[in-house]
Design goal:
Strand order of the largest sheet: 3-2-1-4
Oligomer: single chain
Number of domains: 1
Number of strands: 4
CATH class: Alpha Beta
Order of helices and strands: HEEEHHHE
Strand content: 15-25%
Radius of gyration: 14 Å
CATH topology: Sufe protein. Chain: A
Length: 151
C-alpha cells in the first residue's frame, strides 16, 4: 500500500474517532443491542429505527479505543437505508478487509481498516459495532459480545 493511501486511511479513522457520525441514543429506536469486548473494555450500543425491512435511522453510543469508535461511526454511515441481508453482506466484506488486509481496488472508507489485520487483537475492536448492529437487526434483547460468535 502506498504511503499516500496509508495516510488517507489513517485520516479516515482519525476523523471518525474525533467527529463520530450518528453518535448518541436514538430516541425513536425500535431495535437496540449492546456489544461488549471484555478483552479491552470497548462497549457499544446500537440503536435502529426500522421502517419495514430497512434501517431508517441508526446511531451508536459507547466507549472504547479509536478503532472501535471510528468503526462504529463508519458502520452507521454505511448501514443506513439498508436491509438486514445488505448489512450482513457489508459486514462480511468489512470482516474480510480487517482479517486479511485485502481491500478492493476502489478507494472506500471501509478499506481504511485494512491495517487492522496486522494487529489481530484489534479485529474485535473493529467489529464490535457491527456485531451489535447485526444483533439489533435480529431484535435480540440479549447483550452481544465479541466472545460469542459471528466471525
Amino acid at each position: 500500500m502506498s504511503a499516500d493511501l496509508t495516510e488517507l486511511y489513517q485520516q479516515v479513522i482519525l476523523d471518525h474517532n474525533r467527529r463520530p457520525r450518528n453518535r448518541g441514543k436514538l430516541p425513536t429506536a425500535n431495535r437496540v443491542a449492546h456489544g461488549d469486548n471484555p478483552t479491552c473494555g470497548d462497549q457499544c450500543s446500537v440503536y435502529l429505527r426500522m421502517d419495514g425491512a430497512r434501517i431508517a435511522e441508526i446511531s451508536f453510543d459507547g466507549s472504547g479505543c479509536a478503532i472501535s469508535q471510528a468503526s462504529a461511526s463508519l458502520m452507521t454511515t454505511q448501514a443506513k437505508g439498508k436491509t438486514g441481508p445488505e448489512v450482513q453482506a457489508l459486514y462480511k466484506h468489512f470482516h474480510d478487509i480487517v482479517t486479511t488486509g485485502n481491500a478492493p481496488e476502489e478507494i472506500s472508507d471501509l478499506a481504511a481498516f485494512a491495517g487492522v489485520h496486522s494487529f489481530p487483537a484489534r479485529i474485535k475492536c473493529a467489529t464490535l459495532g457491527w456485531h451489535a448492529a447485526l444483533e439489533a437487526l435480529k431484535s435480540d434483547p440479549l447483550p452481544t459480545t465479541t466472545e460469542s460468535h459471528l466471525d
